[in-house]
Amino acid sequence: MTEEKNISNDELKELQELVLYRYGYDFSQYSKASFVRRVLRFFEVAGVASFYDFKYNLVNNKEFFAFFLENVTVNVTEMFRDPSFYRGLREKVLPALATYPVIKIWHAGCATGEEVFSMCILLEEAGLLSRSIIYATDINPKNLDQAKKGIIPLTAMKEYIQNYHLSGGRQDFSSYYTARYDNVLIKKELRKNIVFSQHNLVTDYAFNEFQLVLCRNVMIYFEKELQNRVMHLFYDSLPSGGYLALGIKESLLFTDVRWKFETVDAASKIFRRKT
To answer: How far is CA 193 from CA 143, 144, 188, in A?
Structure first.
């Protein structure tokens, strides 16, 4: 199987059932094509010889499963990704959030935290960070461990600085971090109001009410049925007038809740729960 770089439907189903019953992670409604690509890439990275060896290691080696989870979940992120989106937040969302005495924000699928740190910078520049609580969740505990450290490779900063200024930032970006050898450390003062926690969008439920929910570039890896379920989860997590932000390539169009939201910024995929 691995020599041909392919996986059969039966093997895929067996893998999904094994992971669900052994570890509680349900990948059955992930986009099949994307999930299979990630599994096959993991075979190469991990040097898996056969599907039998793969199953044996998944069942008997928790560290092997952790490495598998790290590779098959989505970890791509960057600071101020899609600068126009952050400009939309600055201009159309933050002024409304400023009317709340306490601002609660949920970053679902936060990966290693770069977009969460970006939001903290926006809030700081708007004078709102001190009364904000940002809940950053991800399915992958290794992502969360990395995000908690606030460490970012120095090589990425040139692009991030450019993104920041394109998003409308006017401050000296270097004031938000300190350089340490080949990395930078996002300043602790910016990170103090972040609550990192593991949350599975497939199996877990609403856990609080938020004025803003962000889940960007995660839904594109889900089948439509799962997308619909997650959108209901986000709807239940927002009060009337609460904001929902999706990735540029994502949409509410084919979900049951599409009529319950109004569009705030179509290009940036920012929506608001109708009152």
So the answer is: 18, 15, 9
Residues 139-154 have pLDDT tens digits of 999 999 999 999 999 9
Cα gap 16→25, rounded to integer Å: 8
Contacts of 34 (CB under 8 A, 6+ apart): 221
Q: Among candidates 78, 210, 92, 71, which has minimal Cα distance to 140?
A: 71
Q: Where are the domains of the chain?
A: 9-72, 83-273
**pTM score of the predicted model:** 0.91
Distance (Å, whole) CA 84 – CA 107: 18
Read off φ and ψ for residue 138, nearest 5 degrees: -155, 155
How many angstroms separate the CA atoms of 70 and 65, rounded?
A: 8
Name the amino acid, one letter, at 238. L
The answer for residues whose C-beta is within 8 angstroms of residue 160's C-beta and 6 or more apart is: 78, 79, 80, 114, 152, 173
- Residue 149 CA to residue 168 CA, distance in Å, equals 27
223-241 pLDDT per residue, tens: 999 999 999 999 999 999 9
Closest of 161, 89, 147 to residue 117, by C-alpha: 147
Task: Report the chain's terminal Cα–Cα distance, integer Å.
Answer: 54
For domain 83-273, which CATH number applies: 3.30.70.250, 3.40.50.300, 3.40.50.150, 3.40.720.10? 3.40.50.150
- Kindly list the distances between the CA atom of residue 258 and the CA atoms of 85, 160, 244, 262, 263, in Å, as whole numbers in the listed order: 20, 33, 12, 8, 10
